[in-house]
Amino acid sequence: MPMSLTSLNQLLHLLADGHFHSGTDLGQHLNMTRAAVWKQLKGVEALGVKLHRVRGRGYRISGGLDLLDVEAIQRQLPVLSPLFNVQLHMSLPSTNLTLMQSQQQGYIHAQVVLAEVQTSGRGRLGRQWQSPFGKNIALSLGWNFAGGASALEGLSLVVGLALAQALADLGVQGIQLKWPNDVLVAGKKLAGILLEMRGDATGPCHVVIGIGLNVHLTHDEIIDQPWVSLKQLGYDLSRNDIVAQILLRLNRHLHRFVQHGFAAVRDEWQHYHCYQDQRVQLLLSGRIIEGMCLGVDLVGGLIVEHGGVVKTYSGGEVSLRPISVQLEPQLEGQV
User: Fold this and answer.
1) Mean pLDDT, all residues of the chain
2) What integer is the mean pLDDT of 275-282?
3) Do residues 140 and 108 touch, judged by C-beta distance below 8 A?
4) β-sheet with 302-306: strand ranges across
5) What distances in angstroms separate CA 43 from CA 4, 48, 49, 52, 160, one per listed residue?
6) CA 335, CA 130: separation in Å to the nearest integer?
7) Helix, strand, coil: what percent of the chain each, to 5?
8) Residue 325: CB partners within 8 Å, gap ≥ 6?
9) If DSSP codes are grouped into helix, strand and coil, which group holds residue 70?
């Protein structure tokens, strides 16, 4: 069961400043006994947060925390149509899974799920996405489309463009997009996107848009591909500001996508494309194909010239690398 925003959340906000707080002071602020405070502190540690204890001084979280705050996010959003309903959880297995399960019970359009820590986050092709407490952004947005699944070609690229432009709005430089769903800086992965969908080819379609973004992460022994965080790049940005800007850009681009499809933003997407007019390797169905990447077509398919023949590839089980990287016989995914 996910942890709720109760006294544990209040305790985290008290400790977020990075200063020492005695057990007595914490108890007075939270209106609870020392024993109850101690139990809540154990709950903090259970989330993966490292507590620094010093006898006579109390407890602190070294370096503090940049906590998500629904009100701080909503204050930055104008009156949008539809209005975003933002839900924040202390811990979830997966924000995407939570929204997918909600879809079975009702309406998820413009529903946003955030988690301070995501314990079983997933990426493309089933790989794990690391999201320790308070370090990254794990965000899922539900969106309903009337035109059916066949009208959603290029959607992952549109989401990537929205994410890239949101970061650019906040001053982040050097952003590149890797087809079909990664955000890179200097060839290292900064963010990834996972779309999950229910519906059919012609009827109403429910899509959960999952975004994982490395914000304050500085080390991780599990990630098995080159990665980078905003902090490592020298950006000290509030996660609340980032979430608000992402939602603003997503709102704008999703409405545009419904009206005009991917074709309306193809040129913008290619402006960020990291492999535009470069030689690349494609791994598909166990075969490696080398060729020149000519960009994407009007529905987001990857255009590659190979042996004098120009072919277009859709997403799914295709893995893409620059020609300089030697491919192992496996498929790529998210961080």
Assistant:
1) 87
2) 92
3) no
4) 309-313, 302-306, 287-296, 279-284, 319-322
5) 11, 9, 9, 14, 35
6) 7
7) 30, 30, 40
8) 281
9) helix
Residue with tokens 């690349």: 280
Q: How far is CA 306 from CA 310, 320, 328, in A?
A: 6, 14, 20
Binned at pLDDT 50, 70 and 90, residue 122 comes out as low
SS3 annotation, 258-304:
HHHCHHHHHHHHHHHECCCCCEEEEEECCEEEEEEEEEECCCCCEEE
Question: Beta 111-118 vs 85-92: how paired, if at all?
Answer: parallel
Strand pairing report for 175-178 and 302-306 = unpaired
Reported as a single tens digit per residue, the pLDDT across 28-50 is 998 888 889 999 999 899 888 99
Q: Give the closest residue to 278 by CA, choosing from 317, 325, 331, 330.
A: 325
Using CA atoms, how far apart are residues 129 and 118, in angstroms rounded to an integer? 8
Token pair of 122 as six digits? 């997933």
**Catalytic amino acids?**
124, 189, 321
Sign of CA dihedral 306, 307, 311, 315: negative
Alpha-carbon Rg for the chain, nearest whole angstrom, is 21
The full length of the chain comes to: 335
pLDDT of residue 186: 93
Q: Going by C-beta distance under 8 Å and a sequence separation of 6 or more, which residues neighbour residue 14?
A: 21, 26, 29, 30
Residues 44 and 11 sit within 8 Å (Cβ to Cβ): yes
Token pair recorded at residue 315 = 């997403």
User: What burial class does residue 300 get, using C-beta atoms within 10 Å of its C-beta: 0-12 exposed, 13-18 middle, 19+ buried?
Assistant: buried
Copy the structure tokens of residue 32.
């609870």
Give the separation between CA 331 and CA 191, rounded to whole angstroms. 18
Long-range contacts of 230-238 (CB under 8 A, 24+ apart): 230/167, 230/172, 230/190, 233/172, 233/174, 233/185, 233/190, 235/170, 235/171, 235/172, 237/170, 237/172, 238/66, 238/72
What domains are defined for the chain?
Answer: 7-60 (1.10.10.10), 70-272 (3.30.930.10), 279-322 (2.30.30.100)
